[in-house]
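Worked example 3 (structure in, sequence out).
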């Protein structure tokens, strides 16, 4: 069996999914992964916070029961039906009565701006709908439960390797240039570029896309905390920036979607959000508990028509032996763990088809 080298650039979920499927489609492939930072997972990662003395996810992630690719990576979880709490009235309603809020959560874009084609594509992906209403939220263990299990599909991992350029000739990549080394590609090598859009457009001939921000705030309470009706998470509508609240033990996590207007001082934001959380829980707190604020100005793509038309239609790049992965490459689908995993699968399939033709 011919030995092939697959060089994956980027160690987020898209890159890890690509590695998984390269091994599935062609077990003899030598899969090498290059990551610019000192860890894998991208925003789907966890770390031990020495200040709070607990494990925290960099970003809170939700997966629908209908997200089959995400479930393959993450394994079986306990899914719940989401409830929404009206911040102003205190009443709890179901998801189908809060379609704009559900749309904001799925697309990280105000509902009136979301592309109709994107809505149709997402509904088609979720059909049949009986699993679409069940949700699981991450519980500050993404590194252990989602990222680390994917290491088995990678033969070699190189941390602190930032791709600076791709040297090409006659439409094919010839050399990968990193900060401190370069790799010359042979005829039996392919590259899967699983970088985010901002970094990919510095290397490849692709447009720079518009993004939408997300803010996550983690609060550490002195005892285990509860939400209304003992729910593990609630959606929030009304006059508050808070959209989702989830709890795990004594860590309460808040998600603010489309948070471009919320990039104020972190301490002021954490204080104001905690006040809203207390109102939602029906309690009066004397102080703001220890907390960490994570701001992601380029968390996902803005899912409006103009932005979507600039997204790739497939995994092909301007180089014959370089293939694209990343949630931003999936044209109509919203950016998520599911979409990132799908993009990795698609890129691996196309890359292996390319090699088998040689």
């Amino acid at each position: 069996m011919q030995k092939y080298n697959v060089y994956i650039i980027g160690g987020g979920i898209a890159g890890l999914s690509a590695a998984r499927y390269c091994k599935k489609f062609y077990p003899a492939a030598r899969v090498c992964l290059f990551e610019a930072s000192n860890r894998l997972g991208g925003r789907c990662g966890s770390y031990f916070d020495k200040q709070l003395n607990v494990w925290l996810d960099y970003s809170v992630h939700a997966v629908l029961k209908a997200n089959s690719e995400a479930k393959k990576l993450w394994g079986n979880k306990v899914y719940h039906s989401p409830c929404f709490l009206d911040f102003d009235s205190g009443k709890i309603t179901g998801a189908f009565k809060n379609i704009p809020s559900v749309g904001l959560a799925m697309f990280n874009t105000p509902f009136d701006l979301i592309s109709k084609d994107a809505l149709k594509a997402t509904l088609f992906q979720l059909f049949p709908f009986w699993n679409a209403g069940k949700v699981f939220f991450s519980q500050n263990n993404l590194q252990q439960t989602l990222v680390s299990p994917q290491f088995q599909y990678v033969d070699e991992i190189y941390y602190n390797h930032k791709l600076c350029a791709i040297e090409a000739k006659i439409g094919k990549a010839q050399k990968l240039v990193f900060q401190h080394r370069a790799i010359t590609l042979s005829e039996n090598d392919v590259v899967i570029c699983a970088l985010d859009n901002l970094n990919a457009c510095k290397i490849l001939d692709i447009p720079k896309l518009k993004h939408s921000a997300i803010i996550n705030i983690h609060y550490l309470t002195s005892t285990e905390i509860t939400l209304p009706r003992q729910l593990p998470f609630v959606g929030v509508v009304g006059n508050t920036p808070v959209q989702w609240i989830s709890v795990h033990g004594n860590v309460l996590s808040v998600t603010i979607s489309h948070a471009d207007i919320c990039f104020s001082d972190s301490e002021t934001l954490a204080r104001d959000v905690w006040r809203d959380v207390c109102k939602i829980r029906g309690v009066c707190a004397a102080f703001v508990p220890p907390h960490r604020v994570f701001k992601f100005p380029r968390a996902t793509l803005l899912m409006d028509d103009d932005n979507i038309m600039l997204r790739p239609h497939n995994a092909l790049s301007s180089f014959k032996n370089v293939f694209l992965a990343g949630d931003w490459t999936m044209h109509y689908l919203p950016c998520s763990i599911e979409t990132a995993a799908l993009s990795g699968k698609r890129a691996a399939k196309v890359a292996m088809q390319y090699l088998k033709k040689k």
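Notes: The domain at 46-140+210-301 is CATH 3.90.660.10 (Polyamine Oxidase; Chain A, domain 2). The chain has a mean pLDDT of 93.
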